[in-house]
Write a structure and sequence with these properties.
Length: 356
């Protein structure tokens, strides 16, 4: 009896680092708009934390009228909402920068999405009552470790300005795709900040503090900052909103194809507005034609899938390109905004194929 061809073939995460664990989604093989947690990319700065789930409490403290301490059961009883949200690592596509920059050499798979269910952070802040003069809300995780650049131990903590913290869709999530958030993705509670790069979506929440000043933790003031110059910090500014971007999932880069009809397909996303147009070039950018965007996402929280039918008769090498535009008329640039830590790469998508 002959063996079946490629039995049980399925994609796997692609490893970028083991200590700490950093793995990317095989985005070119994903054909659905929600990612199973097993294929959701993993971004860690430190080892996974050790937690005692039987006695889990979430404190809300700082510049509040009444300090609160919520049990997980308390949070589960509060009014919730479910949102489809794309999370993209700020370093996604870092390996494409020229000149090269240091850091995890992510290709195109430090991005995933699915349905997150939780309680608006605003609800918890209202229950505690923010005092006048509140400026930022600091969310601290249980993950911690030593930073080699500072030679000091830090927990992972980030702050949000008040306007973003009280946005109705900034949530403290406890479910992903209708199941409890998996441990490696932040169980039991994870902050989800739609429209911003995923460094803001703190995992394994330890406590939430309201402050009246600018938070200066290293993951706010050293990392996740755009530094336009290699040798100095002039013109530095924080990483926040996801830039308009796209990825070609099919065909694969450097794939060999036959003449005839082919479907070029992929995803496009934006942190500001929604995707209004995706254009494709099959001749290295000489001419552009609109692709069919099959999933219009009016909220701007999830990616939009797109397809383009390409008929090719001549053999040779071809450069295929994709360019997304959002509702604020922002489009992918021909060249990325270079910065020395390699954040926010969103240049026009480009791959090469050979027709035989």
């Amino acid at each position: 009896m002959p063996y079946p061809l490629y039995p049980f073939v399925k994609p796997y995460l692609m490893t970028r680092g083991l200590q700490p664990e950093n793995q990317e989604t095989p985005i070119q093989f994903i054909k659905t708009d929600t990612i199973d947690y097993q294929l959701f990319y993993r971004r860690n700065h430190f080892a996974y934390p050790g937690l005692s789930y039987s006695n889990y409490w979430l404190p809300i403290n700082g510049l509040v009228k009444t300090a609160k301490c919520f049990s997980l059961q308390d949070i589960l009883r509060l009014p919730s909402k479910t949102l489809k949200v794309v999370l993209e690592c700020a370093g996604n596509k870092r390996s494409l920068f020229e000149p090269k920059v240091f850091g995890e050499q992510w290709e195109k798979g430090a991005i995933s999405q699915g349905y997150w269910k939780g309680v608006p952070l605003r609800t918890l802040l209202e229950l505690a009552g923010m005092k006048e003069g509140a400026k930022e809300v600091v969310v601290e995780g249980y993950d911690y470790g030593r930073r080699t650049d500072l030679d000091t131990v830090h927990t992972y903590a980030r702050s949000l300005p008040i306007y973003k913290a009280i946005h109705p869709d900034t949530i403290i999530a406890y479910e992903y795709n209708n199941r409890p958030i998996p441990f490696k993705h932040g169980y039991p509670l994870r902050l989800i900040v739609p429209q911003w790069y995923a460094m803001a979506s703190v995992k394994w929440i330890k406590q939430i503090s309201v402050i009246d000043s600018d938070f200066t933790g290293p993951f706010q003031s050293v990392d996740y900052v755009y530094y336009p110059h290699k040798e100095n910090d002039e013109g530095a500014f924080p990483v926040t909103t996801i830039k308009v971007n796209s990825t070609i999932q099919k065909p694969l880069n450097m794939e060999v194809l036959n003449t005839g009809k082919h479907i070029i397909e992929g995803i496009a996303w934006t942190g500001k507005g929604n995707i209004t147009k995706v254009e494709v070039s099959t001749n290295g950018g000489k001419t552009w034609t609109e692709a069919k965007v099959s999933q219009q996402n009016k909220e701007g929280y999830a990616w939009s899938a797109w397809k383009f039918e390409w008929s090719v008769a001549a053999k040779g090498e071809y450069t295929l390109m994709a360019k997304a535009t959002n509702s604020y008329n922002q489009e992918q640039p021909a060249t990325p905004f270079w910065n020395r830590k390699g954040y926010g790469y969103n240049a026009i998508e480009k791959i090469k194929v050979k027709i035989e």
